[in-house]
Here is the input.
Amino acid sequence: VQESTSPGAGRPRADVTAEVFAATLRSVHEFGYAGATMDRIAVAAGVAKTTLYRRWPSKGALITACLVDAFGPAPLLGEDRDAVLANAIRWGAERIAEPGVGAAFAGVFTDAVSDPALRGILWNELQAPYLRVLQDALGESEQRVRFVIDVAMGTLLHRMGISGEPMAADDVEALIAMVRGVFR
Amino acid sequence: VQESTSPGAGRPRADVTAEVFAATLRSVHEFGYAGATMDRIAVAAGVAKTTLYRRWPSKGALITACLVDAFGPAPLLGEDRDAVLANAIRWGAERIAEPGVGAAFAGVFTDAVSDPALRGILWNELQAPYLRVLQDALGESEQRVRFVIDVAMGTLLHRMGISGEPMAADDVEALIAMVRGVFR
Here is the structure.
């Protein structure tokens, strides 16, 4: 029996990754961050748990990779700095509102408080790349841009935690107006 | 044998509560939010797990009560609205910087995203009382004050998650200056 004729064999690796990411967000949405164990994610994705651990050494690493995929490249559109900033914050608000994304984000950050290795992964994979492109697009110092990321993402996540709902559009616009003032 | 002569008997209930709260924050600080199980907290406090569950029906309820105790009454000091706001944010920043408090806060909010019962506890015990006193002190609408709480607490917690450190004083002052603009 050739390996490529067994069921599922030869399926492109990218396809499995997409299924694992979708299963991860579904599991977090359904069971919460703590309840979305590697076991449950493996079952939901229809893969062996060893397959998960071969690619991602920990749940935190898998969640981080899943968030990088869910967010994708930051859209740095707009004719001036205010417009770029507004579009970036609206994009962040939309992403956090997607099922599972807000809870996955809040959960991995919570774990990172007491896990320096996970903090390194989060920093290298998620925070640093967005920080760099935003710094270039906004022409501001690292300290200012880090501050603005903390404000925008922190506010959106806190609202999600306290209300269980994404922030409403009028409050997102108030957030944009407030953050603009930081660069004045 | 009279019950009051057995070791530990007759110890005031408030004393046990204080020990449980201290043990809760120590456990979260040492093991992270997920690792601070009810079992570990009971061992750290030197009480039976049933004692914990008699007082607090879930880990989320215990963490919320512990945070209410750690934060205490909001200090609403200052000669005008700007001063009251600045002192409240500095107070929040100091509390979140205490060992275990930031991680406990972030963790219970993360759990609340997928747990409506916990969200009710958090709202009634923690968020609503602070919202009310801040609304009175600032003379602003509920929507504005909720927004400001999301901004201040969310920003401070996001910084803690990404850096593992509390926000530095100059960034806390930048946060205060930014939030003041919301009420102009």
Observations:
- Residues 33 and 107 of chain A are 6 Å apart (CA to CA).
